[in-house]
């Protein structure tokens, strides 16, 4: 699996123990949902407050302890506001950060060399571990693993490219949570541009290739696309750089395509049966269509789509008028024929 190393028995055991202590339902954990009962919510809040007492920008400016490694702390900061609005909001930090992360000072991360030989009688301390995404999202990763394996990122970057490379678990929101297309576009394109429009971050991954790859000029690559800037503001990169999803549960495939395989047919989006309805506008199209009566109504203010201005109510009215016209013409013809037959009978 591309997600990372195989599950470690220690990590799994500690995770299960943590889940039990927190008394979170198994179903909720599987879906990444936060607890709802007041007692557990309060417990999680207090637990997270302990972590955020150090891992915030404010704590870095005014360290709560004099012996802290500020350089290392600066690499592990969290914005509480962004986390509270993320897909993992309400979950305890120690649900994922287990083992040695539960106490301070933290134990060395798993796989890190020991700082020195511990005393013979020193108690054994669990190594600090961060659980992989598939520990909770097993069903989801099972579905997307095959797609990711075929992705241009996985082929080129192998183990250097993981879930958190794009989806920061402390910030990321699902499209179902964002709902509004403009917010979805801003977040998802931001994840792409974070590397593809950033020389420093691109070098971090491009430097793992042999030979080292320089960051391509995204403006030059997309010169064929009319008004490229407008497209990037209105739709996501993945609308063209991923194939159609194979299941309704996953509106977007995780198989990222290279420029040779990317979509270049404008009609894929700019048509009445636009692919955007089941992708970017999946969570708004049906509702707005019912409210406003327009087909693809969610697209009206954001993109030019053939047929989007058709209104279902006007369509029905038009069909009714056509029906009445046909009925009128047919009735008139029937009366003329009947009248002719009556006159002919009188003459005879």
Please trace the helix and strand order, writing H or E for each element: HHHHHHHEEHHHHHHHHHHH
Please state the CA-atom Rg, rounded to the nearest Å: 29 Å
Percent strand equals: under 5%
- Report the uncertain regions: 1-32
Largest pleated sheet: 2 strands, antiparallel
Number of helices: 18
Average pLDDT score: 79
* Widest beta sheet: strand line-up: 1-2
Please give the number of β-strands.
2
First CA to last CA: what distance?
94 Å
Overall helicity: 40-55%
Explain this structure.
By secondary structure, the chain is an all-alpha fold. Among the domains are: 1-114 and 123-136, no CATH class; 269-339, no CATH class. Helices cover 47% and strands 2% of the residues. Strands 1-2 form a two-stranded antiparallel ribbon. The longest helix has 36 residues, at 312-347. The radius of gyration is 29 Å and the shape is elongated.
Record the SSE blueprint.
Blueprint: H1 9-22, H2 26-30, H3 38-52, H4 57-61, H5 70-73, H6 80-84, H7 93-96, E1 97-99, E2 128-130, H8 138-150, H9 152-157, H10 163-166, H11 175-178, H12 181-196, H13 199-206, H14 218-221, H15 228-234, H16 238-241, H17 285-292, H18 312-347
Antiparallel strand pairs: 1-2
